[in-house]
Design a protein that fits this description.
single chain
């Protein structure tokens, strides 16, 4: 009985040794590639942010100048908001807000809203949405230029009272059959501009 158990015990040791070696190899591989992975992720994120900084010249690393605004806040969405601050010679020139319009037709719409230091929109880009293909997905810059109408707009151009769809008495175009989606985006951008106007100094206080 004892002699029969020994091979099983030996096999267990061998399997444990193999598992330990594999674990060590995985840990070594992760250690070697970790910095490269982080660098690639940062490069991808910064490339994703640039389209919302149309015409803005900056010289800092956006990833290293990020601010997290916790709940409660008056920005669109019901979660903490990330703000990437763009600087030139250590002076603030623009901010990029990652906000969520929660009232899209098919669910939340994740937006990247760029605003220069004077409160003028640089550009807005859709990061994620679930709107209906061929109808509500016009908000994606790859599908149409509808989102471009917010570039160079502010709370005085048009007047803040006119930040609404044309059918609601405002200045902005809508897409036939997709007014809920259009309205949600306009509302979210206006909310972001209002927050920036009221909190600009604190946003750049710790840059």
């Amino acid at each position: 009985m004892t002699g029969g158990a020994k091979p099983v015990w030996s096999a267990g040791l061998i399997l444990a040794a193999i598992a330990a070696v594999c674990t060590a190899l995985v840990a070594l591989t992760f250690s070697v590639t970790k910095e490269r992975i982080v660098a690639n992720e940062q490069a991808w994120l910064e490339q994703s942010l640039k389209p919302a900084l149309a015409g803005i010249v900056y010289d800092n690393n956006l990833i290293e100048s990020v601010l997290s605004i916790p709940l409660p806040h008056e920005l669109p969405g019901n979660e903490p908001v990330l703000v990437y601050r763009a600087l030139l010679e250590n002076k603030p020139v623009a901010a990029l807000f990652v906000v969520t319009a929660v009232d899209g037709f098919s669910g939340p719409i994740r937006l990247l809203v760029g605003i220069d230091f004077d409160g003028i929109g640089t550009a807005t880009r859709v990061l994620r949405h679930h709107e209906t293909p061929g109808l509500g997905d016009f908000i994606d810059s790859a599908k149409s230029d509808w989102i471009d109408q917010f570039e160079d707009k502010s709370l005085s151009n048009p007047d803040r009272l006119l930040w609404a769809l044309g059918r609601d008495g405002g200045e902005f175009d809508q897409v036939t059959g997709a007014s809920i989606t259009s309205r949600a985006v306009v509302k979210a951008i206006k909310q972001t501009l209002l927050y920036f106007e009221a909190n600009r100094e604190s946003i750049f206080a710790d840059k």
